[in-house]
Amino acid sequence: IRYSYKGRVHPQAGIKLIRHMxxxxxxxxxxxxxxxxxxxxxxxxxxxxFLHKNSKTLLHDLQQFIVKNLGFGDFIFRxxxxxxxxxxxxxxxxxxxxxxxxDESLIYHSSHNHFSTWLAAHNEFLFAKKLKFxxxxxxxxxxxxxxxxxxxFNEVKYLRNRGKIIHFDxxxxxxxEGIIRLTDGSFGGKGRGLAFLNSLFVSMELEKRFKGVHIKxxxxxxxxxxxxxxxxxxxxxxxxxxxKDDQQIKDHFVSGKLSDKLQLVLASFIxxxxxxxxxxxxxxxxxxxxxxxxxxxxTFMLPNNYPEYDLRLKHLENAIKLVFASVYLQTARNYIExxxxxxxxxxxxxxxxxxxxxxFGDYYYPHISGVGQSYNFYPTSYLKNSDGVVSLAIGLGKSxxxxxxxxxxxxxxxxxxxxxxxxxxxxSQKEVYVIDISNNDLKLSDTEEGTLKKIRLREIEKYGxxxxxxxxxxxxxxxxxxxxxxxxxxxxTFADILMYNYFPLADICREILEIxxxxxxxxxxxxxxxxxxxxxxxxxxxxxxxxxxxPLTVNTDEIYVNSDDIVKEELFLYTNSGMGxxxxxxxxxxxxxxxxxxxxxxxxxxxxxxxxxNKKMKDLNRQYxxxxxxxxxxxxxxxxxxxxxxxxxKAKIIVEAGLKDFVVDASQGTHFFxxxxxxxxxxxxxxxxxxxxxxxxxxxxxxxxEEKTEYFIHIQTDEPVVVKMDGRKxxxxxxxSN
Length: 738
Fold this sequence. Notes:
The chain is α+β, with helices and mostly antiparallel strands. The protein contains 21 helices and 35 strands. Strands 26, 27, 28, 29, 30, 31, 32, 33, 34 and 35 form a 10-stranded mixed beta sheet that branches. Strands 7-8-10-13-11-12 form a 6-stranded mixed beta sheet.
């Protein structure tokens, strides 16, 4: 109370200062300290706090004053009489509670700058200053005051969460951006990629470069690998299980029990989240720079929109268990073995991600899905490898990653037509993958596709979902007409977007691929989805969502081929569309389709035959050259032989050959294809009737036959053949002998 004032000690200086502050409406918590008990009476008259300097509880009382009055600790909502009504533990909790407190409490705290003080104590000085200038008397009603304060706190919440990994709390489940950690442990390969993107987008501020567009990752929740370890231990899972077939393995995992902690977290999650979700794998080895695991593990799309809470929770838990199980399935075990890892070295995190899209009748899907690569393995025309390539599809991206029909373009030259218009009509996407949100009878252990539906493109036109995405083939003038106005077959061209920039898709893809490649130091691949929904009145803008990013393995050791030195008579195969680099000179085995027996109606039987032959080669530990028509690995059996990776994983060179009655556009950019690249497998395309590229089928048929099946011939040459691949030019060829 006594201190120096104007050069001399004033006995009432403290009292005088308090009265001066109150006279000028300076509203802040005040504590009057004195060693004289009689001064407590002055404090009471002034309405301020009093603390006796000689009190035995001095430090405790001082701490209580600071916590209670200077904004530290919980925010305690009080009535005007000072009685506690509620309390908020965090910014997220505050946003929820502020919407529940009575008007009386709101006016009380607003009038005393309590909200501003609490924000300042939480290091949000800029927003605290903004709130300090909000005066109750400036508003006509409390609803307006509440909304303004909510806007400020929501902005704080948004900026705090951007680029961060947020630990689980029920109050943070509604965050628009950021990654929420549900359990401890590593995030795995995909999870690391998403965390990288989450942080990168904040620092790069991409949205400032593309006005009127949102660029972000979907709402993402990650179960760390610790839960996988505990699940394996608690449910007695071990190597013995690998002797069972895939269905038995799935059944065993589904019958297992998740940890009590995770069950509680998932129960809270399901209470608050009722939109479609994707449950994805994120193994430790997955999407690494050395050995990407793309497409090996399973992903489940859950409608998650039906009213039965217990059923939604059961489906989510089962999907998580089945992602765990996918480590032990035959496909994954074969792949792990082929890259010289042991099963126990792999651990699984799980990503639960908002499914990007909109509701169209009983279906849910994004307007556009895509896969972008910063390195183009098949540059055509004046394109370079470094120009990259993007594959697009309407609906879910499964059609792209499974090698079905997709539209491709270069992000550097989006208006360049990679396929002539007359061919585009035949190659155009005809069917769309969607989530069937009317189906709650999910049999997840049967197949990961149980929640998906494949529908005809024309079926979704009635929802207006094809606007800006398709053109119409005009038979009278033998050309494409942009838009849906005319009559004729619908052809997926994305013309409004790529030609007329309705949405800056090419620019966004180019920017993200460039940034990703620079940041990772290697070529990259991204998966993305686009929601074109736009409503200026509601402030809704189109959104580009990046679903994941991973390294794209490219062999950078180059050889240079001089075309003038090539003697084609010494070759049995030559192509200008080869992928891969280097020289291979230890292959004696060639397995090829008998072109005279190929029938596109029997590709399933061909799949079974090549799987049988591949197993024999695996048992003998021999690699081989595989030659067949159409797209290897396509899920559309009429476009090629629908093999899975483990059914051809001993092939060191794979050739897509065109036949007289079977001409299919070359595959590119699929998960299956990506894994072939990661294994440094040469991948060649030999079109039918090319003036330059060729396969000498007659020479192949003259070689000693090791085995012959209904559709395939396995030959073995006396001397190893020599394969040469110029990755820079795309020229690849195979000599008849060493």
